[in-house]
Design brief:
Blueprint: E1 7-11, H1 13-22, H2 29-38, E2 43-47, H3 57-66, E3 71-75, H4 79-88, E4 92-95, H5 115-127, E5 131-136, H6 140-148, E6 153-157, H7 159-163, H8 166-185, E7 189-193, H9 201-205, E8 210-215, H10 217-226, H11 228-246
Parallel strand pairs: 1-2, 1-8, 2-3, 3-4, 4-5, 5-6, 6-7, 7-8
Helix pairs in contact: 2-3, 10-11
This protein binds pyridoxine-5'-phosphate.
Residues 11, 13, 47, 74, 94, 96, 104-105, 135, 155, 193-196, 214-218 line the site of pyridoxine-5'-phosphate.
Length: 252
């Protein structure tokens, strides 16, 4: 595999959303994670929200203990979450902003405004052997701040790109491409995610500096119609085809 193989991280939060709608244990997000890994996911992503609306503390423990692939824990930069991460030691932590009233993570974290706090969180997590990613808007000031506090990676928020109407979407995609190039120049690994679908994933997969996409809601939703393995395989095929056409030399 080359350095720039494009990884697919499958976010299983919404398996837990369905489970929690009835209480009990079904459907089990850990079983979904296991299935996703056996179907070719490069990693599993799960967000432990402050209000525990989908993923639970026990889910995180079970994912880290039983899933034979990298676990990426998304979390807010609170003392409680840092302690949980240090206790469970996922392979990676992605720091996201969190507001209780939001339906999903609506924007990137403001690294410039919260620089001191985030620097200390990055330090503690790194000392525990955890790679830290910051989920940010594709803006140069945010990338420079992420580099200054020695994050391992940035994840570029693709929500505005996905929600944009056709003409505007290309401009948003170009912003993401420029941000990815800057991240690489500053020595940061570059990931992207949020709102990606079969329709929107291609132009993002074609950005050569991006090495990981984290995708959840659409894949889990599509799984209702065709199964998780098939929804992942189709997503993987679209990602690979755009990557191959845009950057053949980067293929694994
Ligand atoms: N990346 C991050 C940092 C996120 O917070 C989310 C949503 O939980 C995703 C990726 C996945 O977004 P979606 O579920 O829209 O595919």
């Amino acid at each position: 595999m080359t350095k720039r193989h494009l990884r697919l991280g499958v976010n299983i939060d919404h398996v837990a959303t369905i489970r929690n709608a009835r209480g009990g244990g079904h459907p089990d997000p850990v079983r979904a994670a296991d299935l996703a890994v056996r179907a070719g996911a490069d990693g599993i992503t799960a967000q432990l929200r402050e209000d525990r609306r989908h993923i639970s503390d026990d889910d995180i423990a079970a994912l880290v203990e039983t899933i034979p692939a990298p676990i990426n824990l998304e979390m807010a930069a609170t003392d409680e979450m840092v302690a949980i991460a240090v206790r469970h030691r996922p392979d990676a932590v992605c720091i996201v902003p969190e507001r209780r009233e939001e339906r999903t993570t609506e924007g990137g974290i403001d690294v410039v405004a919260s620089r001191d706090r985030l620097a200390s969180v990055v330090r503690v997590l790194k000392q525990a052997g955890i790679e830290v990613t910051l989920f940010i808007e594709p803006a140069s000031a945010q990338i420079e701040a992420a580099s200054a506090i020695e994050a391992f990676a940035v994840e570029l928020h693709t929500g505005a790109y996905c929600n944009a109407i056709a003409g505007e979407r290309e401009r948003r995609r170009n912003e993401i491409a420029a941000a990815a190039a800057l991240a690489e120049r500053l020595g940061l690994e570059c990931h992207a995610g949020h709102g990606l679908t079969y329709e929107t994933v291609g132009p993002i997969a074609a950005i050569p500096q991006i090495v990981e996409l984290n995708i959840g809601h659409f894949l889990i939703g599509e799984a209702i119609f065709c199964g998780l393995e098939a929804s992942m395989q189709r997503m993987r095929a679209v990602m690979d085809e755009w990557r191959r056409v845009a950057a053949p030399a980067l293929q694994s």
